[in-house]
Inverse folding.
Protein backbone atom coordinates (compact mmCIF):
# COMPACT_ATOMS: atom_id res chain seq x y z
CA UNK A 1 0.00 0.00 0.00
CA UNK A 2 2.87 2.35 0.92
CA UNK A 3 4.57 1.57 -2.38
CA UNK A 4 1.40 2.39 -4.30
CA UNK A 5 0.96 5.62 -2.37
CA UNK A 6 4.58 6.60 -3.01
CA UNK A 7 4.21 5.91 -6.71
CA UNK A 8 1.04 7.96 -6.82
CA UNK A 9 2.72 10.91 -5.09
CA UNK A 10 5.70 10.66 -7.41
CA UNK A 11 3.36 10.75 -10.42
CA UNK A 12 1.64 13.84 -9.03
CA UNK A 13 4.99 15.57 -8.62
CA UNK A 14 5.94 14.76 -12.18
CA UNK A 15 2.63 16.10 -13.44
CA UNK A 16 2.99 19.26 -11.40
CA UNK A 17 6.53 19.80 -12.65
CA UNK A 18 5.45 19.16 -16.22
CA UNK A 19 2.63 21.68 -15.96
CA UNK A 20 4.83 24.31 -14.32
CA UNK A 21 7.88 24.00 -16.53
CA UNK A 22 6.47 25.83 -19.59
CA UNK A 23 5.42 28.79 -17.43
CA UNK A 24 8.95 29.62 -16.25
CA UNK A 25 9.85 32.84 -18.04
CA UNK A 26 13.56 32.45 -17.27
CA UNK A 27 13.57 29.34 -19.50
CA UNK A 28 11.96 31.25 -22.37
CA UNK A 29 12.47 30.83 -25.25
CA UNK A 30 13.93 27.40 -25.79
CA UNK A 31 14.70 28.20 -29.44
CA UNK A 32 14.04 30.65 -32.26
CA UNK A 33 10.83 32.71 -32.08
CA UNK A 34 8.78 33.27 -35.23
CA UNK A 35 6.93 36.58 -35.43
CA UNK A 36 4.23 36.27 -38.08
CA UNK A 37 3.33 39.63 -39.63
CA UNK A 38 -0.08 39.97 -41.25
CA UNK A 39 1.20 42.30 -44.00
CA UNK A 40 3.76 41.92 -46.75
CA UNK A 41 7.49 42.59 -46.61
CA UNK A 42 8.39 46.26 -46.85
CA UNK A 43 5.18 47.51 -45.23
CA UNK A 44 5.47 49.87 -42.26
CA UNK A 45 4.33 47.06 -39.97
CA UNK A 46 7.02 44.76 -41.34
CA UNK A 47 9.79 47.37 -41.01
CA UNK A 48 8.83 48.27 -37.43
CA UNK A 49 8.47 44.63 -36.34
CA UNK A 50 11.96 43.89 -37.62
CA UNK A 51 13.23 46.95 -35.76
CA UNK A 52 11.95 46.00 -32.31
CA UNK A 53 12.46 42.31 -33.13
CA UNK A 54 16.20 42.98 -32.93
CA UNK A 55 15.73 44.36 -29.42
CA UNK A 56 13.73 41.27 -28.41
CA UNK A 57 16.42 39.00 -29.86
CA UNK A 58 19.04 40.76 -27.76
CA UNK A 59 16.96 40.66 -24.60
CA UNK A 60 16.07 36.96 -24.83
CA UNK A 61 19.26 35.69 -26.45
CA UNK A 62 17.43 33.91 -29.27
CA UNK A 63 16.56 35.08 -32.81
CA UNK A 64 13.11 36.63 -33.33
CA UNK A 65 12.50 35.83 -37.00
CA UNK A 66 9.88 37.78 -38.96
CA UNK A 67 7.69 35.77 -41.33
CA UNK A 68 5.32 37.66 -43.63
CA UNK A 69 1.89 36.21 -44.39
CA UNK A 70 0.18 39.18 -45.98
CA UNK A 71 -3.00 37.89 -47.56
CA UNK A 72 -6.78 37.98 -47.08
CA UNK A 73 -6.87 41.04 -44.80
CA UNK A 74 -4.59 39.30 -42.29
CA UNK A 75 -6.91 36.32 -41.93
CA UNK A 76 -4.42 33.77 -43.30
CA UNK A 77 -1.78 34.80 -40.79
CA UNK A 78 -4.32 34.92 -37.96
CA UNK A 79 -5.51 31.39 -38.66
CA UNK A 80 -1.94 30.09 -38.78
CA UNK A 81 -0.98 31.60 -35.41
CA UNK A 82 -4.27 30.65 -33.75
CA UNK A 83 -3.34 27.00 -34.34
CA UNK A 84 0.27 27.29 -33.20
CA UNK A 85 1.59 25.79 -29.98
CA UNK A 86 0.99 28.18 -27.05
CA UNK A 87 4.63 28.18 -25.98
CA UNK A 88 5.56 31.75 -26.93
CA UNK A 89 7.65 30.65 -29.89
CA UNK A 90 5.06 31.80 -32.45
CA UNK A 91 3.81 35.37 -32.13
CA UNK A 92 1.50 37.43 -34.31
CA UNK A 93 1.61 41.09 -35.32
CA UNK A 94 -1.38 42.63 -37.09
CA UNK A 95 -3.46 45.78 -37.27
CA UNK A 96 -6.81 46.71 -35.78
CA UNK A 97 -8.62 45.17 -38.73
CA UNK A 98 -7.77 41.66 -37.59
CA UNK A 99 -8.51 42.24 -33.93
CA UNK A 100 -11.50 44.62 -34.02
CA UNK A 101 -13.18 44.51 -37.45
CA UNK A 102 -12.78 41.25 -39.37
CA UNK A 103 -14.81 39.13 -36.93
CA UNK A 104 -17.73 41.48 -37.55
CA UNK A 105 -17.29 42.19 -41.25
CA UNK A 106 -16.76 38.61 -42.47
CA UNK A 107 -19.51 35.99 -42.32
CA UNK A 108 -17.20 33.31 -41.02
CA UNK A 109 -13.53 33.10 -40.11
CA UNK A 110 -11.35 30.14 -39.12
CA UNK A 111 -10.32 31.97 -35.94
CA UNK A 112 -11.89 34.07 -33.19
CA UNK A 113 -9.88 37.19 -32.46
CA UNK A 114 -11.37 37.52 -28.98
CA UNK A 115 -10.71 33.92 -27.91
CA UNK A 116 -7.77 32.57 -29.89
CA UNK A 117 -5.08 35.08 -28.92
CA UNK A 118 -3.39 36.24 -25.75
CA UNK A 119 -2.72 40.00 -25.98
CA UNK A 120 0.82 41.20 -25.30
CA UNK A 121 0.86 44.85 -26.34
CA UNK A 122 -0.63 47.56 -28.50
CA UNK A 123 2.42 49.65 -29.27
CA UNK A 124 1.54 52.24 -31.92
CA UNK A 125 -1.30 54.02 -33.64
CA UNK A 126 -1.62 54.91 -37.32
CA UNK A 127 -3.43 58.24 -37.71
CA UNK A 128 -4.97 59.25 -40.99
CA UNK A 129 -4.79 62.66 -42.61
CA UNK A 130 -7.91 64.03 -44.26
CA UNK A 131 -6.56 65.55 -47.47
CA UNK A 132 -7.88 67.30 -50.55
CA UNK A 133 -6.13 68.71 -53.60
CA UNK A 134 -4.14 71.86 -53.05
CA UNK A 135 -6.28 73.31 -55.88
CA UNK A 136 -9.58 72.39 -54.23
CA UNK A 137 -11.89 75.21 -53.15
CA UNK A 138 -12.37 73.36 -49.85
CA UNK A 139 -9.84 74.79 -47.41
CA UNK A 140 -11.16 73.64 -44.04
CA UNK A 141 -13.52 71.24 -42.32
CA UNK A 142 -16.20 73.93 -41.85
CA UNK A 143 -16.04 74.63 -45.60
CA UNK A 144 -16.31 70.89 -46.29
CA UNK A 145 -19.38 70.69 -44.07
CA UNK A 146 -21.01 73.63 -45.80
CA UNK A 147 -20.29 72.28 -49.32
CA UNK A 148 -21.46 68.76 -48.46
CA UNK A 149 -24.73 70.01 -47.00
CA UNK A 150 -25.33 72.21 -50.03
CA UNK A 151 -24.95 69.24 -52.42
CA UNK A 152 -25.44 65.94 -50.53
CA UNK A 153 -23.56 63.00 -52.05
CA UNK A 154 -21.68 65.03 -54.63
CA UNK A 155 -18.37 65.22 -52.77
CA UNK A 156 -16.34 62.00 -53.04
CA UNK A 157 -13.78 60.45 -50.74
CA UNK A 158 -11.32 57.67 -51.48
CA UNK A 159 -10.26 54.84 -49.18
CA UNK A 160 -8.09 51.74 -49.36
CA UNK A 161 -11.17 49.49 -49.29
CA UNK A 162 -14.56 48.76 -47.75
CA UNK A 163 -14.54 48.29 -43.95
CA UNK A 164 -10.85 49.17 -43.67
CA UNK A 165 -9.88 51.84 -41.16
CA UNK A 166 -9.73 54.79 -43.62
CA UNK A 167 -13.22 53.95 -44.91
CA UNK A 168 -14.59 53.75 -41.39
CA UNK A 169 -12.87 57.03 -40.52
CA UNK A 170 -14.77 58.65 -43.37
CA UNK A 171 -18.06 57.15 -42.26
CA UNK A 172 -17.48 58.25 -38.67
CA UNK A 173 -16.78 61.79 -39.88
CA UNK A 174 -19.98 61.78 -41.94
CA UNK A 175 -21.98 60.80 -38.87
CA UNK A 176 -20.33 63.42 -36.66
CA UNK A 177 -20.85 66.23 -39.18
CA UNK A 178 -24.26 65.09 -40.41
CA UNK A 179 -23.16 65.11 -44.04
CA UNK A 180 -23.30 62.74 -47.01
CA UNK A 181 -20.12 61.88 -48.90
CA UNK A 182 -19.74 59.39 -51.76
CA UNK A 183 -17.28 56.60 -50.96
CA UNK A 184 -14.80 55.45 -53.65
CA UNK A 185 -12.84 52.32 -52.55
CA UNK A 186 -9.45 51.69 -54.17
CA UNK A 187 -8.80 48.12 -52.93
CA UNK A 188 -5.50 48.85 -51.23
CA UNK A 189 -3.95 51.04 -53.93
CA UNK A 190 -3.06 54.04 -51.76
CA UNK A 191 -0.67 55.76 -54.18
CA UNK A 192 -3.32 55.77 -56.91
CA UNK A 193 -6.05 56.92 -54.54
CA UNK A 194 -4.04 59.81 -53.14
CA UNK A 195 -2.73 60.68 -56.60
CA UNK A 196 -6.30 60.91 -57.82
CA UNK A 197 -7.10 63.28 -54.96
CA UNK A 198 -4.14 65.48 -55.91
CA UNK A 199 -5.38 65.46 -59.53
CA UNK A 200 -8.95 66.24 -58.36
CA UNK A 201 -10.45 63.04 -59.75
CA UNK A 202 -11.64 62.38 -56.19
CA UNK A 203 -12.29 65.13 -53.68
CA UNK A 204 -10.96 63.73 -50.40
CA UNK A 205 -9.18 60.84 -48.73
CA UNK A 206 -8.22 59.74 -45.26
CA UNK A 207 -4.65 58.96 -46.23
CA UNK A 208 -1.85 57.02 -44.61
CA UNK A 209 0.69 59.63 -43.39
CA UNK A 210 3.61 58.02 -45.23
CA UNK A 211 1.82 58.66 -48.54
CA UNK A 212 0.24 62.02 -47.74
CA UNK A 213 2.97 63.94 -45.92
CA UNK A 214 5.43 64.17 -48.85
CA UNK A 215 2.64 65.41 -51.14
CA UNK A 216 1.49 67.94 -48.54
CA UNK A 217 5.02 69.27 -48.21
CA UNK A 218 5.34 69.39 -52.01
CA UNK A 219 2.24 71.57 -52.20
CA UNK A 220 0.12 68.98 -54.05
CA UNK A 221 -2.27 68.17 -51.21
CA UNK A 222 -3.95 70.25 -48.52
CA UNK A 223 -4.45 68.73 -45.06
CA UNK A 224 -7.80 69.48 -43.42
CA UNK A 225 -7.23 67.55 -40.21
CA UNK A 226 -5.83 64.40 -38.62
CA UNK A 227 -7.92 61.56 -37.27
CA UNK A 228 -5.90 60.96 -34.10
CA UNK A 229 -6.56 62.52 -30.72
CA UNK A 230 -3.23 64.39 -30.88
CA UNK A 231 -1.57 66.39 -33.63
CA UNK A 232 1.17 64.85 -35.74
CA UNK A 233 4.70 66.07 -34.91
CA UNK A 234 5.44 66.24 -38.66
CA UNK A 235 2.43 68.53 -39.24
CA UNK A 236 2.11 70.55 -36.04
CA UNK A 237 -0.02 73.24 -37.70
CA UNK A 238 -2.67 70.76 -38.88
CA UNK A 239 -5.40 70.42 -36.23
CA UNK A 240 -7.02 67.22 -35.11
CA UNK A 241 -10.53 66.67 -36.40
CA UNK A 242 -11.64 66.32 -32.80
CA UNK A 243 -10.59 69.86 -31.93
CA UNK A 244 -12.05 71.40 -35.09
CA UNK A 245 -15.49 69.81 -34.79
CA UNK A 246 -15.61 69.99 -31.00
CA UNK A 247 -15.86 66.23 -30.49
CA UNK A 248 -13.19 65.12 -27.99
CA UNK A 249 -14.18 61.47 -28.48
CA UNK A 250 -13.41 61.52 -32.21
CA UNK A 251 -10.51 59.20 -32.93
CA UNK A 252 -10.34 57.02 -36.02
CA UNK A 253 -6.98 55.29 -36.21
CA UNK A 254 -5.51 51.94 -37.00
CA UNK A 255 -3.11 50.36 -34.53
CA UNK A 256 -0.55 47.58 -34.33
CA UNK A 257 -0.67 44.82 -31.74
CA UNK A 258 1.49 41.83 -30.90
CA UNK A 259 -0.21 38.73 -29.51
CA UNK A 260 0.47 35.06 -28.83
CA UNK A 261 -1.78 32.02 -29.23
CA UNK A 262 -4.38 31.65 -26.47
CA UNK A 263 -3.26 29.64 -23.42
CA UNK A 264 0.32 30.85 -23.72
CA UNK A 265 1.54 30.85 -20.08
CA UNK A 266 1.11 34.20 -18.37
CA UNK A 267 4.76 34.48 -17.25
CA UNK A 268 5.81 34.34 -20.91
CA UNK A 269 3.23 36.97 -21.85
CA UNK A 270 4.47 39.18 -19.02
CA UNK A 271 8.10 38.69 -20.05
CA UNK A 272 7.30 39.70 -23.63
CA UNK A 273 5.30 42.69 -22.42
CA UNK A 274 8.24 43.86 -20.30
CA UNK A 275 10.57 43.39 -23.27
CA UNK A 276 8.32 45.51 -25.50
CA UNK A 277 8.23 48.24 -22.85
CA UNK A 278 12.01 48.20 -22.68
CA UNK A 279 12.38 48.25 -26.49
CA UNK A 280 10.16 51.33 -26.73
CA UNK A 281 12.46 53.23 -24.40
CA UNK A 282 15.01 53.17 -27.22
CA UNK A 283 14.96 56.61 -28.90
CA UNK A 284 16.14 55.04 -32.17
CA UNK A 285 13.02 52.87 -32.37
CA UNK A 286 10.70 55.69 -31.32
CA UNK A 287 12.28 58.15 -33.76
CA UNK A 288 12.07 55.70 -36.66
CA UNK A 289 8.36 55.14 -36.02
CA UNK A 290 7.67 58.87 -35.80
CA UNK A 291 9.60 59.47 -39.02
CA UNK A 292 7.10 57.17 -40.76
CA UNK A 293 4.22 59.39 -39.60
CA UNK A 294 3.08 56.93 -36.95
CA UNK A 295 2.50 57.41 -33.22
CA UNK A 296 4.50 55.11 -30.92
CA UNK A 297 2.96 54.35 -27.55
CA UNK A 298 5.57 54.83 -24.87
CA UNK A 299 5.16 52.63 -23.01
CA UNK A 300 3.10 50.12 -25.00
CA UNK A 301 -0.14 49.01 -23.39
CA UNK A 302 0.14 46.18 -20.87
CA UNK A 303 -1.53 42.82 -21.63
CA UNK A 304 -4.56 43.72 -19.51
CA UNK A 305 -4.82 47.21 -20.99
CA UNK A 306 -4.39 45.78 -24.49
CA UNK A 307 -7.27 43.36 -23.90
CA UNK A 308 -9.53 46.17 -22.65
CA UNK A 309 -8.52 48.43 -25.56
CA UNK A 310 -9.28 45.70 -28.12
CA UNK A 311 -12.72 45.12 -26.60
CA UNK A 312 -13.52 48.84 -26.70
CA UNK A 313 -12.37 49.16 -30.32
CA UNK A 314 -14.38 46.09 -31.34
CA UNK A 315 -17.51 47.57 -29.78
CA UNK A 316 -16.88 50.98 -31.38
CA UNK A 317 -16.35 49.73 -34.93
CA UNK A 318 -18.96 47.00 -34.57
CA UNK A 319 -21.59 49.61 -33.82
CA UNK A 320 -20.58 51.58 -36.91
CA UNK A 321 -20.55 48.49 -39.15
CA UNK A 322 -24.04 47.69 -37.86
CA UNK A 323 -25.28 51.15 -38.88
CA UNK A 324 -23.67 50.73 -42.30
CA UNK A 325 -25.30 47.30 -42.80
CA UNK A 326 -21.85 45.75 -43.24
CA UNK A 327 -22.08 43.10 -40.53
CA UNK A 328 -21.22 39.68 -42.04
CA UNK A 329 -21.33 41.20 -45.50
CA UNK A 330 -18.28 39.36 -46.83
Amino acid sequence: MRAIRASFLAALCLLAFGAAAPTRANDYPSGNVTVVVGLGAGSAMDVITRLYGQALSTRFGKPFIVENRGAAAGNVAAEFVSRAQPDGRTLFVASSGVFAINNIFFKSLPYDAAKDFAPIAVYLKTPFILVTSAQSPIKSLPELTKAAKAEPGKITYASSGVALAPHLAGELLKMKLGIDLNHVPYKGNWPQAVGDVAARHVDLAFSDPSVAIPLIKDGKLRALGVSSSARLPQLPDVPTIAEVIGAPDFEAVSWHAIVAPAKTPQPIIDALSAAMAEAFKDPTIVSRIETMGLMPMTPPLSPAATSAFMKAETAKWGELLQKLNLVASQ
Summary: The first strand starts at residue 33 and ends at 37.
